[in-house]
Amino acid sequence: MIRKAFIMSVHAGYEQEYKKRHNPIWKELEEEIHRHGGRKYSIFLDRITKTLFAYIEIEDEQLWKKIDETPVCKRWHAYMKEIMPSNPDDTPVSRDLEEVFHID
């Protein structure tokens, strides 16, 4: 498994809405995440900065990169774009983080 972490953010005042939209996550989106090799996916919110920290374990980087092309992800991104900074293609603005330490 490849450990992957990245940050995004949510617009101020939309923290509860962001949480609501993820609980529960769309079943078809969860299935797509699994089809693209995603496991153990968590997102954490820093309420002060509105930063979202995401962690996921993936099987293959190339397979994972294809998830944004799926119809369900495109619908999800369009659904979320009003409450978080988004790119012109509706994907969330995000930045990958470099792992510098790990212990099992």
Describe the fold and architecture.
The structure is a single chain. The chain is globular, with a radius of gyration of 14 Å. It has a single domain, classed as Alpha-Beta Plaits, CATH 3.30.70. The mean pLDDT is 97. It has 104 residues and is an alpha+beta fold. It has helices at residues 15-22, 27-35, 61-65, 71-80; strands at 2-9, 38-46, 51-58, 95-97. The protein has a 4-stranded antiparallel β-sheet.
**Percentage of residues in DSSP E strands:** 25-35%
Number of strand elements: 4
What composes the largest sheet? 4 strands, antiparallel
Helical residue percent band: 25-40%
CATH topology: Alpha-Beta Plaits
- Identify the CATH architecture: 2-Layer Sandwich
Q: What's the overall average pLDDT, rounded?
A: 97
Sheet/helix structural class: alpha+beta
How large, in whole angstroms, is the Cα Rg?
14 Å
Count of DSSP H/I helices: 4
What order do the helices and strands follow? Answer: EHHEEHHE
Distance between the termini: 13 Å
CATH secondary-structure class: Alpha Beta
Quick description:
By secondary structure, the protein is of the alpha+beta class.
Lay out the secondary structure:
Elements: E1 2-9, H1 15-22, H2 27-35, E2 38-46, E3 51-58, H3 61-65, H4 71-80, E4 95-97
Primary descriptors:
104 residues, alpha+beta, Alpha-Beta Plaits, four-stranded antiparallel beta sheet, 4 strands, 31% helix, globular
